[in-house]
Amino acid sequence: MADAGKVNGTHIWTQISHPGRQCSRLVSLKPHSPSDVQLKILSNFAPPKAMTESEIQTAIQHYVDTAELSIEAGFTGVQIHAAHGYLISQFLSPVTNKRTDTWGGSLENRAKFLLETVRQVRKAVGKETPVSVKLNSADFQKGGFTLEESAQVAVWLAEQGIDLLEISGGTYEQLSLFGRKGDDSTLEKPKSEQRESTRLREAYFLEYASIIQKALEESNHKVPLLVTGGFRSRTSMNTAIQDSNVDMIGLARPLLIDPDCANKLLDGSIDDIVIRSLDMGKGIWATSKYNDVRALNAQAEVSWYYRQMLRMAEGNSPDMSMSPLRALVSHLIREYKIGIGRRLMM
């Protein structure tokens, strides 16, 4: 995979993550997390166990080991996933980090896991290997990790010498990573977020990235910023870069429909990326205020893209006619078979 990714002189990085409490029961009945705060959606997640000091140090070392193995395997860089409610994001958020030791409480303590992981990964892979971080601009949850805190953590990451910062947002409980901001009117939003422009309607986190960039500039730091999520037109991508809001544009789901769409955008073959609506239907599926139903709808969307990825891996074209419900059922059956198989081998 690393060799294939470098054919045209491009970079290919691994994204290193630990799910923490966002770990399916199929994988673990005793997931680890900073504190024993249970996920409030679905029943597919077991109650987490608060990590001991030894388990924290072991987890950090596993990030380091994975980074080293990635580079040994031929990948050109690594990204540490500190967003979307996974383990590092759980340490950063007061909602999931209730610790009273040096790993919890103040923002400095809550950011300790991330900063120590970055420091040790950098030491392991060397100065010449790109090290990136994916960071929530906010959790979009009441009492959670805020935009102001994200800007401060970005400054601390810059001081650690990271090479790229990707801005995202949300968790499994607050699905902003799918472009769904939820119902909580108390969530902080940049004042200009509601401006009527194509660029802002497309990109989920562009305004947040702009505020984080300003904090970096005010602290005399420069870190290239990447925003992924929602970009669908060449015009909006060019405008975002020209306006100096971001340095790079990330594409994810579009590649699972047309793997060559980035080249087509660059050479002008296409101006827009078409993504079909994947809500499971009208009524409760699309409008429910309940986290469980919204999460199931989001899982159906994710499952649809998983199925397209698997189809292409088998040499087939994406199936645009596949329904989200069918994709969800197929995905769950496959995951349960894999999970049961792994349990039997243990």
Key terms:
single chain; TIM Barrel; 346 residues; alpha/beta; globular; 2 domains; 42% helix; 13 helices; 8 strands
What this model shows, in words?
- Strand 7, helix 9 and strand 8 form a beta-alpha-beta unit.
- This protein is an alpha/beta fold and 346 residues long.
- Helix 2 runs parallel beside helix 5 and helix 12 packs across helix 13.
- It is built from 13 helices and 8 strands.
- A 6-stranded parallel β-sheet has the order 1-4-5-6-7-8. Strands 2-3 form a two-stranded parallel sheet.
- 42% of the residues lie in helices and 9% in strands.
- The longest helix has 23 residues.
- The chain has 2 domains: 277 residues, TIM Barrel; 68 residues, no CATH class.
Q: Provide the CATH top-level class of the largest domain.
A: Alpha Beta
- Biggest sheet, open or closed, and with what strands and sense? 6 strands, parallel
Helices and strands: which structural class?
Answer: alpha/beta
Distance between the termini: 28 Å
**Helix-strand sequence:** HEEEHEHHHEHEHHEHEHHHH
